[in-house]
């Protein structure tokens, strides 16, 4: 697991876990030191392989939001005031 961030990325990308998994499970002194390097490795993986790879579905969603989606965006903006993600990785 040290040679590739794939396992950590899989946990991170699971909406149920995100980075909270590492914060709650990697609590021993030995594992806690790997939290920041693991997040950095996942970020590098995202930046190198996925940042510029918008899917066709994502492009369509950006271009033509539906009325229900607009209402959800307003609600999300209210809930997440001041927490605008920089990119999909942050979202």
Features of the shown structure:
91 residues, 0% strand, mainly alpha, globular, 2 domains, 6 helices, 59% helix
Could you give the topology of this structure?
Blueprint: H1 6-13, H2 20-25, H3 29-32, H4 35-49, H5 56-63, H6 67-79
Helix pairs in contact: 1-4
Could you characterize what this model shows?
The protein has about 90 residues and is mainly alpha-helical. It has two domains: about 5-50; about 55-90, no CATH class. Helix content is about 60%, strand content about 0%. The chain is built from six helices and no strands. α1 crosses α4. About 5% of the residues are buried. The mean pLDDT is about 75.
User: Radius of gyration in whole Å, from Cα?
Assistant: 16 Å
Oligomer state equals single chain
Mean pLDDT: 76
Overall geometric form: globular
Which ranges are low-confidence, i.e. pLDDT below 50, for 5 or more consecutive residues?
A: none
Q: Order of helices and strands, N to C?
A: HHHHHH
Euclidean distance between termini CA atoms = 25 Å
**Percent helix:** 55-70%
Number of strands: 0
Main β-sheet, in a few words? none
- Number of separate structural domains: 2
Please state the structural category: mainly alpha
Please state roughly what percent of the residues sit in beta strands, choosing from under 5%, 5-15%, 15-25%, 25-35%, 35-45% or over 45%. Answer: under 5%
Number of helices: 6
């Amino acid at each position: 697991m040290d040679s590739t961030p794939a396992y950590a990325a899989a946990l991170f990308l699971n909406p149920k876990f995100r980075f909270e998994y590492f914060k709650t499970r990697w609590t021993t002194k030995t594992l806690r030191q790997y939290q920041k390097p693991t997040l950095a490795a996942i970020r590098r993986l995202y930046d190198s392989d996925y940042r510029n790879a918008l899917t066709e579905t994502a492009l369509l969603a950006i271009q033509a939001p539906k009325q229900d989606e607009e209402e959800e965006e307003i609600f999300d903006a209210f809930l997440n005031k001041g927490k605008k993600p920089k990119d999909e990785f942050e979202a």
